[in-house]
Design a protein that fits this description.
two-stranded antiparallel ribbon; single chain; alpha+beta; Pemi-like Protein 1, Chain: D; 82 residues
């Protein structure tokens, strides 16, 4: 199946036809790594899932976390009661 390279801002883009996307089980928003395989071939590979906020927060441990940082006295209506 053929597709055409188009300009997208300062970059170039290709549109992946639906039958190819379906066969590769690609979904909108997936991350792909692209590299030059040879002078006339490109290689695309899935990088993995885009983590959501709960997944990112679950990676925080006492070893890689940080203590609170003081930014000075409260100014205006920024006081928060926990």
């Amino acid at each position: 199946m053929r597709t055409q390279i188009r300009k997208w801002g300062n970059s170039l883009a290709i549109r992946i036809p639906k039958p190819i996307a379906d066969q590769a089980k690609l979904r909108e928003g997936e991350l792909l790594e692209i590299e030059v395989a040879s002078e006339d071939a490109l290689r695309l590979q899935r990088v993995g899932e885009i983590p959501n906020l709960p997944a990112l927060l679950s990676r925080i441990t006492p070893e890689n976390g940080f203590d609170e940082i003081s930014t000075g006295p409260e100014v205006g209506k920024e006081s928060v009661e926990w």
